[in-house]
């Protein structure tokens, strides 16, 4: 009889302890910062903080822990210089068009000399300027060069897709969101001057999706970007020049607290570092210059250079 009562008390005690663990795990979730103790989380919760910030899915119990993790991520990204050399293809555009009978040797030499003398514009633009090829011929040749489809239909920017990527990145890399298929999480993106697979990889990491690239003509891209720039509204923040990882982490943490963001992702995107802050359905993007990029130059620690842009 007594043994039965002891067993019953032990079972009730275990059940109570299980409920207690569940309760404390709910109000004091595990922190991604390894040296953040239970006592520290409890003190922060009782004192003032009542939330969790996630960085790439890993939760942090307080802004201090999040800032430390963000600084580590910014440091890793800054330790890798931004790519500066374009991808070298087996067949350059001029030789490809020459082999297809769309150019003569003399025309190709003239275009190359004009490009070298000016130091500006791509070869395809000079071929078009000099009247040696049409824009459609150049776009088709680019499609063969990059082994990707060419979109010839008129492109109407989808405002929902456009907002997924900051305008500065669209403008810099001459890319245009075409369609986002939620069922398969596939993002169709168009380029006009060759495919930047590094930027596409950054988009995949940021949005947790798969990308498919295509090419459109230069004039179509110009028209689409102009419309996006005309219709945009104030939104994202661009920090001109690259900063130290510690400063970028502090800036990001400050905006996390200001906006009440619960989820943050940070990726290297070409010559930029892109931080995406999500607070429910509201999203804000912070764009920092990346060390070694051609778009940005170093700034002094306290030099203010912040622009409000759109995306």
Describe what you observe in this structure:
- The protein is an alpha/beta fold.
- Among the domains are: about 95-145; about 150-230, Type II secretion system, protein E, N-terminal domain (GMP Synthetase, Chain A, domain 3, 2-Layer Sandwich), CATH 3.30.300.160.
- Helix content is about 45%, strand content about 20%.
- It has helices at about 1-25, 40-45, 65-80, 95-100, 105-120, 125-130, 135-145, 160, 165-170, 195-205, 220-230, 245-260, and strands at about 55, 60, 175-180, 185-190, 210-215, 235-240, 265-270, 270-280, 280-290, 305-310.
- The strands form 2 sheets. Strands 2-1-7-8-9-6-10 form a 7-stranded mixed beta sheet, sandwiched between helices. Strands 3-4-5 form a 3-stranded mixed beta sheet.
- A hairpin with a 2-residue loop joins strand 8 (about 270-280) and strand 9.
- Helix 3 packs across helix 12 (about 245-260).
- The protein is elongated, with a radius of gyration of 26 Å.
- The model is unreliable at about 295-305 (pLDDT under 50).
Task: Note the quaternary state here.
Answer: single chain
Describe the main β-sheet briefly. 7 strands, mixed
CATH uppermost class of the domain at 150-232: Alpha Beta
The span between the termini is: 73 Å
CATH superfamily heading of the domain at 150-232: Type II secretion system, protein E, N-terminal domain
Class from helix and strand fractions: alpha/beta
The total strand number stands at 10
Number of helices: 12
Radius of gyration: 26 Å
């Amino acid at each position: 009889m007594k043994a039965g009562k002891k067993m019953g008390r032990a079972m009730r005690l275990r059940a109570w302890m299980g409920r207690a663990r569940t309760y404390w795990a709910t109000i004091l979730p595990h922190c991604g910062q390894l040296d953040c103790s239970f006592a520290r989380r409890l003190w922060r919760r009782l004192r003032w903080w009542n939330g969790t910030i996630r960085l790439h899915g890993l939760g942090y119990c307080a802004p201090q822990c999040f800032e430390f993790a963000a600084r580590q991520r910014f440091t890793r990204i800054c330790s890798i210089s931004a790519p500066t050399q374009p991808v070298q293809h087996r067949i350059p555009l001029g030789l490809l068009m020459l082999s297809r009978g769309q150019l003569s040797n003399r025309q190709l030499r003239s275009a190359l000399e004009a490009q070298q003398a000016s130091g500006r514009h791509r070869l395809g633009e000079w071929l078009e300027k000099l009247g040696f090829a049409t824009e459609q011929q150049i776009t088709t040749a680019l499609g063969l060069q990059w082994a990707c489809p060419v979109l010839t239909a008129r492109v109407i920017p989808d405002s929902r897709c456009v907002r997924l990527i900051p305008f500065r990145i669209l403008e810099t890399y001459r890319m245009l969101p075409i369609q986002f298929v939620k069922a398969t999480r596939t993002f169709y993106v168009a380029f006009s001057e060759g495919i930047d697979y590094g930027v596409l990889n950054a988009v995949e990491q940021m949005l947790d999706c798969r990308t498919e690239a295509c090419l459109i003509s230069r004039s179509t891209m110009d028209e689409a970007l102009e419309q996006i720039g005309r219709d945009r509204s104030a939104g994202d923040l661009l920090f001109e020049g690259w900063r130290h990882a510690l400063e970028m982490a502090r800036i990001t943490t400050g905006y996390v607290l200001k906006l009440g963001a619960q989820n943050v992702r940070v990726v290297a995107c070409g010559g930029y570092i892109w931080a995406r802050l999500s607070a429910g359905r509201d999203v804000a993007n912070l764009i920092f210059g990346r060390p070694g990029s051609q778009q940005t130059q170093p700034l002094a620690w306290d030099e203010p250079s912040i622009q409000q842009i759109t995306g």
